[in-house]
Specification:
0% strand, Arc Repressor Mutant, subunit A, 77% helix, Rna Polymerase Sigma Factor, Chain: A
Length: 182
């Protein structure tokens, strides 16, 4: 069963942290490569102190010595762990993950933004034109199949499809013109 530290133990640890924490962190940072690792080691030191049953019974000089000894041992533990851990630079990992540029986060965000703009433009079209675009691009039907489905003439669907695409192009051109003029 885990024993929770008493309020007086927590107060002692808080005082020790305020008094010795900055110096311990400086010492630890000199010994590890990443600032985050140094902070983790310092946290381990004070968690160990919080769980200690003997720290309270020591005098101030012994408490300081005890903390420095624990910090030294936690650094050794950190060193042992890091020997087994492979380290890679984040930029290298990102390059490996996204060898294919279209999978990179920036490219995905740009695609989503472009899709949102397209949805907005398509939703401004009349219902029949939206339906034709949906049947063609979302469902993969050709103009003849769309014409049969909508009980329309094949040439009428082809003409509407062509006009709809031209209308979308014009809407895009106008919105691009507004961006550059706005």
């Amino acid at each position: 069963m885990l024993k929770h530290p008493s309020l007086s133990d927590q107060s002692l640890i808080a005082d020790l942290y305020l008094h010795y924490g900055p110096a311990l962190l400086t010492y630890i940072r000199r010994e590890v490569s990443a600032p985050e690792d140094a902070e983790d080691v310092l946290l381990e030191v004070f968690l160990f102190a919080l769980e200690s049953t003997t720290l309270r019974s020591l005098n101030e000089r012994q408490q300081k010595s005890w903390l420095w000894s624990v910090a030294h041992n936690k650094l050794i533990d950190q060193y042992r762990r890091s020997k087994h851990r492979q380290v890679a630079q984040l930029d290298d990992v990102e390059d490996m993950l996204y060898d294919d540029d279209h999978l990179a986060p920036e490219a995905m965000i740009l695609r989503h933004e472009a899709q949102d703009v397209l949805r907005t433009h398509v939703s401004s079209l009349p219902e029949l034109q939206q339906q034709i675009l949906s049947l063609r691009f979302a469902h993969g039907l050709n103009c003849s199949e769309i014409a049969r489905l909508l009980n329309k003439n094949d040439s009428t669907i082809r003409m509407m499809f062509s006009r709809t695409l031209n209308l979308l192009r014009n809407i895009y051109k106008e919105s691009e013109g507004e961006k550059h003029n706005g």
